[in-house]
Amino acid sequence: MARTRTVAGAGTIGTALLVLLFGSQPIVEWVNKHTQPDEAFGWFMRVLTWPRWAFGPVDGSAGSMRRLLADDLRALLLILFVAVILAVGAKTASGVSAFILGWAAVIFAAALAAFITAFILADPSLLTALQLAAAGSAYGLFAGWIVGAITVTGKAAG
């Protein structure tokens, strides 16, 4: 019996791979050291590293621990929210509709994950949460097409 990858499964795996690869501490550090933010390639690489995660804080301070927790939770929530959005919306999605659904799922999931985790940071505010949600939606806009392209490889679950 052949197993078929669903739109939701393909999009969730694609998102997890993007987050695990580009959000890892060595890649983030490499991008920050070896690319320029005022050039297209460097800017795009910085967008891809937005849902960063790490195993431990750099300096051990309380603020650093909060940042670490917020970053790690944001990366996990991004993957979870994409999975939920795709599971709900991918019943009949295929082709172009799967592409758009996958792309939109990343935009919405990244904004929501950033908004929620903003309240973990020191001195949280609604303004900070909205600004971080905007950064999350920018990640989704410019990286979500990759997930959209991956979702096209899945089959509708319905």
From TrEMBL:
The protein in question is named Uncharacterized protein
Q: Where are the transmembrane segments?
A: 73-93, 100-122, 128-152
Name the UniProt key words of this record, in alphabetical order.
Membrane, Transmembrane, Transmembrane helix
Query: Which organism is the protein's source?
Result: Hamadaea flava
